[in-house]
Amino acid sequence: MARILVVDDEIGIRELLSEILYDEGHTVELAENAAQARESRLRQRPDLVLLDIWMPDIDGVSLLKEWSSQGLLNMPVIMMSGHATVDTAVEATRIGAVDFLEKPITLQKLLKTVAAGLARPVIPASMRSRTERPPPPADPVFTQPPALAGGPAAAQPMGAAPADPAPDDSHLGRISLNQPLREARDEFERIYFEYHLLHENHSMTRVSERTGLERTHLYRKLKQLGIDTSRKKSSGG
């Protein structure tokens, strides 16, 4: 699940993208202009930004340039427009945008572009030296521990009792890690929401505040996960 900021002055576009991305399990923040986008960017760093080019106060390319000059362009940004020229798209890419979506945006194109953007996070120049791996050692003898080089028996002293078998690390609590990511994520979200429902006495208002989801999206998420909402009617939440 990713935190995605959608910046567009058209309410229809914001609502459409929000619905699609929520259904994919993402957390979505909405902004209708550059001022709101700045505030949201500072309040909670998004994992990805969908940024419209043409907006009433400051255009998306100028905001992208502002973030880049201030060292705030440390998340993938995908530009959107229905009227942009090739030169505008090229300029946005040169500044730091990872991709461009042309309106009207199709469902397949949106999901494919967002997935690609999340798979290639932007690393700030100041942090690249920390993330670069050191070159492998010149002597291959020391590239693996002696226990691996000599087999299991080499790791035990003479006469020592056999080591205990390695613990089973294929589960995280009740969640099996030997399953597709989407299914593991659904299991985690089901446990997560059931926990908050229990601790908030099934008050949808308090669960909404606690989880940061609007009530409409919360109901949709619970339905998507197969969590029964009928029992909440008596709670008055």
TrEMBL record:
Q: Which InterPro entries match?
A: CheY-like_superfamily, Homeodomain-like_sf, Sig_transdc_resp-reg_receiver, WalR-like
Where 4-aspartylphosphate occurs, the residues are: D52
The UniProt keywords, alphabetically, are: DNA-binding, Phosphoprotein, Transcription, Transcription regulation, Two-component regulatory system
Q: Which domain of life is it from?
A: Bacteria
Q: Where is the composition biased (Low complexity)?
A: 145-163
PANTHER family from the UniProt entry: REGULATOR OF RPOS, TWO-COMPONENT RESPONSE REGULATOR ORR33
Q: What is this protein called?
A: Response regulator
Q: Which organism is it from?
A: Castellaniella denitrificans
